[in-house]
Amino acid sequence: MATYQFQTEVNQLLKLIIHSMYSNKDIFLREIVSNASDALDKLNYLTVSDASYKNVKTDPRIDITFEDSDKVKILTVKDSGIGMDEADLNNNLGTIARSGTKAFIERIAEDKNAGESNLIGQFGVGFYSAFMAAKEINVITRKAGSDKIFKWTSDGTNSYSIEELGADSELAKKYGFDAADSHGSAIEMHLNDDSKEYASRWKIEELIKRYSDHIAFPIYLHYTQNKYDDKGNVTGSENKIDQVNSASALWKRSKSELKAEDYNDFYKTISHDSTDPLHYVHTHAEGTQEYTTLFYVPQNAPFDMYQADYQSGVKLYVKRVFITDDDRELLPSYLRFVRGIIDSEDLPLNVSREILQQNRILDAIKKASVKKLLSEFKKMGEDADKARAVEEGKRTDEEKASIEKWVKFVKNFNRPMKEGLYSDYANREEISEIVRFKSTDESGTGDDKWTSFADYVSRMKSEQKSIYYITGTDEANLRASPLLEAYKKKGFEVLIMADDIDDIVIPSLMKYKDYDLKAVNRAGSDDELGVDKDEAKKKEEAFKPVQEKIKKALGDRVKDVVLSKRLSDSPSCVVVDENDPGLQMERMMKAMGQTGIGVKPILEINGDHAIVKSLESTTDESRIANVSEVLLDQALLISGAELKNPNEFVKAMNALLA
Ligand code: ADP
Ligand code: MG
């Protein structure tokens, strides 16, 4: 027998679990049963796709037994699935592989309030959750195709042990792993004093019905029942076995016979989420292709959605046989928050994962699924907008709910949807009806006042031809930007874009319908501000001497120095050239360890401002240098950029103040 230490993160997780951060202990059974079902799925798949498993005999089932004596309370879940060898046991029941999960555990381990916020409820705590109810767990297991039997044991504190069992050992015989061709795992949970109630027929039946009814394999509950004579006296007992789940694939049932509650329960079994989904859409397609899809949008963004090894939540089935859930391509990456099921009647069962990637049938299903989801999201937004048009006090409950739903959607999923603007060219138009933005007009949806492109257009001034936006890192900063002054004066609305991807995504979009999208922090976005051309020319001529002085003082730190048409209160601002990458992009590249492209800003000067006017008459080189320095640095600061030499700025400032 060998003893091993748990990986640090497993220890952290165990501590969190045992100190009952998780408010609902019952879910451990769901987790253990879902693992049993996964193990059966895996074996099923291998027997149809891998020649070396062709001869493995399968009898997919889950058996639950319990021992309820004065001395011991034991609950055991046994499956006839893939089983585990020694390496599997070490990899699967001793470590946590996914970096997203690790990072998440670190975060809640440090968060003193994690218990109340129920953060841990946001992800499936998995196998280890069984330590909420058990003081000791034994896993007796035999991998399909192998004749070795192992026992894994732990009390959930720091370490676990693994030993090989002989086929003639008592435990091997107890679970039938002594038989040739046997395989699977038995999870034996020795219940702790606070969890004795789980060694009971009624409790188990209730939990399976509630959480695991739609597991696709039969779940049998073994129990003993007393026998009685005519007078009601106990005369003996008999062993009984009942199937306690309906084992029907919920998604195959017709929509009309399913209630919202059925959909919600099923969502919880496949997602490990403890909250109801925000939205679901169930489709049966018939005709050239026959398939079923059932998709869910969660209420909260998956905690590890932005991690590189994020696992998508969509499972692929063929004729109800599970094929894979690690195909990242089932839905495009920007829809990675969607969970659910795709079940095809037309794909061959023995399809390999490689072949799947270029499969025409699957391609068509994916395309249709994306279209369906996008049209649902669009409708969700339209419903909310319609409801919002109703006077606040007069809204029906349904209208209120549709606004609330949409606000949640935008809050959690607007950011990935924006990725779609960039990555899903074919659906760009549809997606641009779904994404929402902050704006200088604040009549949008919800607390956060979101607006759509369509809304923006409906409010546009009749003479206005472009949609204006400003990009940066901080919303408050952007709202205070001097660049907005002239647009405000004209009554032109400006979209406020503070997401780090806006600078990449929005310029690539270029247009919404017939309207050009123009960044006010770029050159070429001031054409519409209605400046008299002759007068502008005159002003530019008059500005030339000052312009030359500033240009000379700043040298190659700026791409150009120009007279601004849009500043009224502030002395200066910076913009980037029309075709240069944004300052935001530059920052992102640096954050990724790249040198950046060296984007130089264009400095726009307010010719009417007193500080600028003061340059007209002076020839004092050091004063010109200081004023120029301050004009550039303050504009950079306000734009959210970092100063390369803050001390130069302070020096210049002090010199001017003196
Ligand atoms: P998850 O199911 O999300 O992978 P769990 O913590 O529930 O995480 O389980 C960890 C791993 O242990 C599983 O991925 C699987 O490889 C293995 N495992 C757990 N239970 C079983 C089982 N009954 N049969 C085979 N493997 C299992
Ligand atoms: Mg699991």
UniProtKB/TrEMBL annotation:
State where it is primarily located. Answer: cytoplasm
Name the segments for region: C.
588-658
**Region entry A, spans:** 1-353
Annotated NCBIfam families = PRK05218.1 (NF003555)
Q: Which GO terms describe its molecular function?
A: ATP binding; ATP hydrolysis activity; ATP-dependent protein folding chaperone; unfolded protein binding
Keyword Cytoplasm attributed:
yes
Subunit record text: Homodimer.
Q: What is this protein called?
A: Chaperone protein HtpG
Compartments where located = Cytoplasm
